[in-house]
Amino acid sequence: MMKHIDISTALNANPDHAAIISLEGEILLTNLSWQAFSRDNTGDPDYTDVGVNYLDVLKKAGVTAVYEGIVSVLEGRQDFYHNKYPCHSPDENRWFIMTVTPLNEGGDIQGALIVHRNITEVEWAKNQTVDILESMTDAFFAVDQNWRFTFLNQEAEKLLQVSRSGLIGQNIWTVFPDALGTTIQFHYETVVDMKLAKQFETYFEPLDKWFEVHAYPRHQGGLAVFFKDISEKKASEQQIWEMANLDELTGLANRRFIYEKMNGIIQKRIPFSLFFMDLNDFKDINDVYGHDAGDQVLQKIGERLQALQEESGGVAARLGGDEFVFMIAELDHEVTGHFAERLLNLIRKRMSVSGYYAFSMVGSIGIAMYPETGMNVNEIMSAADAAMYEAKKSKSVTGTYRFYEISMREVIKRRIVMGDDMLTAIDRGDFYYVYQPQINMKTGLVDGVEVLSRWKHPQLGMIPPPEFIELAEETGKIRPLTERTIRDVLKTVDGWRRDWGYDGRVAFNVSSSLIESPSFFTFIKEQMTYFKIGRDQLELEITETVNLAASEALAYHLDQFRHIGVSLAIDDFGTGFSKISHLSRLPVDRIKVDRTFINEIGSGSKGEAILYAVIDLMNQLEVDVVAEGVEEEEQVRVLMGRNCSHIQGYYYARPTEEEEAVSYIWSFVQTKNSER
């Protein structure tokens, strides 16, 4: 028998089930966990107690593989042996992993240590992630540090035309030798070596397919790959044009197309009339009958406008929501008025939705003319919009229209004043900034702040951010406004770093249009150099939109920002266009889950289930999750239990000006430090 120095104490300190066997297989010693498990699971002492020959038990039970594995360790033919196996009880499904390690004394093997570890929670979490990956429409596979396949979902199996049962454990370059020496190998090896996500498109000749590929490094080595077949997109430039210029729901022209069309006509000085249409009380359709019914109503209106467009030679477009425009080459007020009546009748025409709902919509129309009411697209669109709101005020049960008039000037005067003052307002000090802390739930510290702009106008008072941001976008002032905000705030935060060692992130909301601007990229790079911004200390938050999800150019530019050390976040995730597959296409570091999902906590709803599934999957992909709008202690407790990495909301702090924000962050850090 082997000599041991207090080995019982060491074994009993191990929470796993552990036993020591001799070279012949006799159980020499067991720990308390081994004994308790055997007792609680009605184990037979003849099979588990000291003195029993464990190898004989395995042989009699027919567990040949395990028997041979232990023997190979005892004989020194392998350094260790492990085996994962199910051990289900009547009450729950359980999984264990068995590890056998040789015990050496004087260079000779004297026996072995056998450990059974309960890995039920790990297996459960893994199965949850697998379920999510299997439900994705994108293909996905993962390889380990030795380029061996560890997982493929069904979509990957289909696109690669392989059977995953025979692929797991195989080397990717052995299975797909034609990929060696191609851009596929180059990009994959770059991802692994540089530890940076990469997006690229590639043609794989053996399958005669084009793929869009998004590869991410895995923390433990290897990489995770999302990909999809884009052969049809590559074969059809027309499809790409339609995606850029047509409204996805109705098939009409979108805002981008109609603006470009109007600009072209104005440059040629061709007169036209613009009809701005809004469906009265459309929100009630969505609230009462559901958004599917609302979408069908919009599609019906789109079909009718399409038919009128073909008949009249005009141009119809959907701006978004329930807003449409129609443009015709006509300036006569009487003729234009008759055309507006046709549009109202077209909207009022009864429609059937889903086979049994019947709707009769009412519209409001504003009419503006070029060159009578404006000399550029923004002026014409603003005038038509203002006239539409005047028409809507009538609350007509049959709908009505209004021509733009001078008396409506006040409606757009405010916007003109804001547009003219926006740039000078920055220098005048009308703009100021508030900061909202982001709490790292792993450390309990504030490790980042989101910066929000505020505008106090000397005549108009406080202007809501959505109003001036929308105007800045429309008037092309979003870039100088954003750059000034970033420059001013970085200067302020630089003082925080010098004065009290702040080293957290500072996050800015940025328009996706700026991300695609090379000069904005240069500006960010210069600021990082000037203020000595470290990697991941500057974050850009981009709201997820249809364009964000679909734009290949935008994804490329995001990758460039990530390369220079800018942290990237998707803001307001879950508010309309969010899909897990979108995240696989974008090199983001974190997502900010919209408060509508946070408010579902404790409701038992699908929204709550989606929130938890997203957090679990993001943890697997090593993407941080920031929960926005957290206001209640119960929400904090649940999110911490779900390993949500960051929390932001009124529960901790409201957006406040610099002095109060700094005081809060500093006192918060001091309090945490004193607790250690």
The count of helical stretches stands at: 28
Structural class: alpha+beta
Q: Biggest sheet, in brief?
A: 8 strands, mixed, barrel
Rg over C-alpha atoms, rounded to the nearest angstrom: 32 Å
Total number of β-strand segments? 26
Strand order of the largest sheet: 18-19-21-22-23-24-25-26
General description of the model:
With 676 residues, the chain is α+β, with helices and mostly antiparallel strands. Helix 13 packs across helix 14 (291-312) and helix 19 packs parallel to helix 21. The longest helix has 23 residues, at 478-500. Mean pLDDT is 85; it is low at 546-550. It is built from 28 helices and 26 strands. The chain is elongated.
Question: What features would you highlight for this structure?
Answer:
28 helices; alpha+beta; eight-stranded mixed β-barrel; 45% helix; five-stranded antiparallel beta sheet; 676 residues; 24% strand
